[in-house]
Write a structure and sequence with these properties.
- The structure holds two protein chains of two kinds.
- Chain A is 29% helix and 27% strand.
- Chain A is built from nine helices and 18 strands.
- In chain A, strands 7-11-6-1-4-5-12 form a seven-stranded parallel sheet, with helices on both faces.
- In chain A, a hairpin with a 2-residue loop joins strand 2 and strand 3.
- By secondary structure, chain B is α/β, with parallel strands linked by helices.
- Chain B has a single domain, classed as Rossmann fold, CATH 3.40.50.
- Chain B has seven helices and 15 strands.
- In chain B, helix 2 crosses helix 6 and helix 4 packs across helix 5.
- The longest helix of chain B has 16 residues.
- Chain B is globular.
- Classes of the chains: A alpha/beta, B alpha/beta.
- At the A-B interface, helix 3, helix 4, strand 7, strand 9 and strand 10 of A face strand 2, helix 4, helix 5, strand 9 and strand 10 of B.
């Protein structure tokens, strides 16, 4: 009986979800009364395996094929490991790369897949807790199968600590090169530019609630009046209203200002991942149940178009 | 070439709502084209505008209500639409990504597209898995979370950027035929023109049943079962400033001054 957790690396470093997978994997292994095995694929696998040898890990299987993540290699290697070790569950991270190979692994193994778990209990019939409708509701799903695949939401489980005594071994695996039909040719950092929002002490951050591009000067004036820097949630950048270097969140910048003023931002999980480390979070939003309220320290439940002009006036600015 | 775009009609929930059984009560739901799919449709339409002889076909798994959403995709420039539905699918308890991938697999076999575009995820249940699951089933190559696409129509190869976390993009070459899952922001989805809306009424929209697709009802049997839905307990311990806008703005101003981060 095993749980197989598939770790992630990028450009020479293990990514945080790899260590969260150990914690979640140990929880799942305890529920199922099984061992926790890790898969480490690509790059400096021996170095990675040493770092991943933390408390609760029973075995680590390495596959050195590929320098960077490639879903064809990951899918083949994990499928081969699953054939060899017959895990009860294959655990992966609900990251961009996780989404790029987990469904293929589940398909190859012909097992059900549940994604983006925020909690689970597999002591009986495996039950997974997920969010739906942008976090407005939670659901539970039962998995009625002897073997299943699961992806966990990043940052929901703590990173594993401690030193382990796992058996580390290269997994005997022959890559079918002809089945590798995509090639990573490079990486690019985006969103640099004249402004670094991660350096700001105060961020005035604007979201979908601003409704129209023509309304943006309102929050720009507030930022000016406060001596703050303007940032935004994803939809504003998707719409092309602000450049990428203003985007806070999972695919943008992680920010930790003294004060983060979220204006018309509902607080999707991808956004929260980028700003929850702020010292003080103030939310201005019409919806008292918006997820942003869960992490706000102070909140004004009102229309931003009423509140922001008053605030500008407080600081001697002129609302347009 | 032929581009197949999978589109989903998703429900959005009002700020105030109630749950009835395993879903939000219908009266609190509003239906719309899934945001990610809107970008996928636009990307396909742009391909058809930039190249000769590109047909854009959309496919939806959904009830008759979804026709309105499908017509919007046609109005934006898709050439024709397929909708997969019948009483058996309507009666299915839960369409998980594996099940949807099987339904879409039958469409891919029938249509033989050169390229399939899907949204990264749907805004309602957000599994984010159907596109890659479909690719695996039909033996296509794939790329997930694509925010830039250059497609070579002659070779049927794609050069894409995948949007990774933390402001990093991965540049990847993908051999066709492929399934690409499209991220928001890749383009600027157009609004349907009045002319487009009129034309959409005359474009073909065919309904396909399991029987039409040569599938048995057993494809609907899933090992994943939805067992409960509830409102999460609020974790909020925020101090709520109450009152008229000038009062709440005043509270916030005092806080900012007192904490010393703002002068003036």
């Amino acid at each position: 009986m095993t749980v197989l957790a598939v770790t992630e690396q990028r450009r020479g470093e293990l990514r945080d979800p790899s260590f969260e997978l150990i914690t979640a994997g140990r929880q799942l292994a305890d529920d199922l009364d099984s061992e926790l095995h890790l898969a480490v694929i690509g790059g400096d696998v021996d170095g990675y395996a040493d770092q991943l040898n933390r408390e609760g890990v029973d075995a680590i299987h390495t596959v050195a094929d590929g320098e960077e993540f490639n879903h064809d290699i990951y899918t083949q290697a994990v499928t081969a490991m699953a054939d060899a070790h017959e895990p009860d569950a294959v655990l992966m991270a609900n990251t961009v790369n996780g989404l790029d190979f987990a469904p293929a692994v589940a398909g190859q193994l012909d097992v059900p897949l549940v994604t983006d778990a925020v909690d689970f209990d597999a002591s009986g019939t495996p039950e997974v807790t997920r969010e739906q409708y942008g976090g407005k509701v939670e659901t539970t799903v039962d998995i009625e199968a002897d073997q299943f695949a699961l992806t966990i939401r990043p940052a929901e489980w703590a990173k594993a600590e401690g030193t382990g005594d796992a058996d580390i071994a290269a997994f005997d695996f022959d890559l079918d090169e002809s089945a590798v039909r995509s090639t990573v040719t490079g990486f690019e950092e985006v969103g640099s530019g004249d402004v670094d929002i991660s350096e700001a002490d105060i961020l005035v951050s604007v979201g979908r609630g601003i409704e129209e591009e023509d309304n943006l000067p309102l929050v720009e004036e507030l930022a000016d009046a406060l001596g703050a820097t303007l940032s935004s949630s994803r939809p504003i950048v998707d719409n092309g209203w602000l450049p990428k270097n203003r985007q806070v969140g999972q695919s943008g910048k992680v920010v930790t200002p003294d004060v983060y003023i979220a204006i018309g931002i509902s607080g999707a999980v991808q956004h929260v991942a980028g700003m929850k480390g702020s010292d003080t979070i103030v939310a201005i939003n019409t919806d008292p149940n918006a997820p942003i309220m869960d992490i706000a320290d102070y909140a004004i439940v009102d229309d931003l178009f009423d509140v922001v002009p008053e605030l500008i006036e407080e600081f001697g600015g002129e609302a347009s | 070439m032929k581009v197949l775009v999978t589109v989903k009609e998703v429900a959005e929930v009002d700020d105030e709502f109630a749950i009835d059984g395993l879903d939000v009560d219908e009266s609190y739901l509003e239906y719309d084209l899934n945001e990610w799919d809107d970008y996928a449709v636009e990307e396909a339409v742009q391909l058809s505008e930039a190249n000769d002889d590109v047909e854009v076909v959309t496919v939806t798994v959904g009830p008759e209500r979804a026709d309105e959403t499908i017509r919007m995709a046609l109005a934006k420039g898709a050439d024709r639409a397929l909708r997969v539905w019948d009483d058996a699918i309507a009666g299915a308890e839960f369409l998980d990504p594996g099940t949807k991938a099987q339904l879409l697999e039958a469409i891919v076999e029938e249509e033989e597209p050169d390229l399939v575009l899907t949204g990264v995820q749907s805004g309602d249940d957000a599994f984010g898995a159907t596109g890659v699951a479909l690719a695996e089933r039909v033996g296509f190559e794939w790329a997930a979370v694509v925010n830039d696409l250059e497609h070579d129509v002659e070779a049927n190869d794609s050069s894409v950027r995948r949007e990774l976390e933390g402001g990093v993009e991965e540049l990847t070459d993908v051999e066709g035929p492929a399934v690409l899952t499209i991220q928001t922001g890749i383009n600027e989805p157009r609004y349907a023109s009045l002319r487009g809306i009129r034309q959409a009424q005359r474009k073909p929209l065919d309904v396909q049943t399991l029987d039409d697709l040569g599938l048995e009802e057993s494809v609907l049997e899933t090992q994943v079962e939805l067992t409960s839905m509830y409102e999460p307990e609020s974790e909020s311990d925020a101090v709520i400033w109450e009152g008229a806008a000038d009062e709440t703005a005043g509270e916030l101003a005092s806080f900012l001054r007192d904490s010393g981060v703002v002068e003036g």
